[in-house]
From TrEMBL:
Keywords: Magnesium, Metal-binding
Pfam families, per database record: RraA-like
Protein name: Uncharacterized protein
Domain of life: Eukaryota
Length: 140
């Protein structure tokens, strides 16, 4: 039987993010081979409250990876994922299928799908105001 983890990978469309709950922060959720498949699927990114391996190769894949840490260790052999596209807790935050995942060099936020447009509108308005302030500061 296929692993729910790989089932989730195959269901990931271009520009979608995979969020993986780990059995522990220092346990690897994957590395080179596993994430090669996500790169092939044009995944927008990976977020986990666990660790990842093979970071030099992961950088070459060109999609962002947000993890607690890195590790040279393989993941646990006895803990297997139980489901794909279920509700999880990642880093203490509840994540549901369809939630908006936004990340940059400062971190990751989860926006419930039911509020995504409202949050986008607020953030976009703030960006406009910040651009105006930056322009004014540049001319002074």
């Amino acid at each position: 039987m296929e692993s729910p983890e790989y089932e989730a990978f195959e269901q990931t469309g271009p520009n979608e993010c995979v969020v993986m709950e780990s059995v522990g922060p220092w346990e690897s959720v994957g590395g080179d081979i596993k994430f090669l498949r996500l790169a092939q699927l044009k995944c927008a990114g990976l977020v986990t409250d666990g660790s990842v391996r093979d970071t030099a190769v992961l950088r070459e894949y060109g999609f962002p990876v947000f993890s607690i840490s890195t590790t040279p260790r393989q993941g646990p052999h006895v803990h297997q994922p139980w489901e794909a596209n279920g509700v999880i807790t990642c880093g203490g935050i509840v994540v549901r299928p369809g939630d908006a995942i936004i990340g940059d060099q400062d971190g990751v936020v989860v926006i419930p799908a039911s509020h995504a447009q409202e949050v986008y509108d607020i953030a976009h308005s703030r960006e406009i105001v910040e651009d105006i302030v930056k322009t004014e500061l540049a001319t002074n």
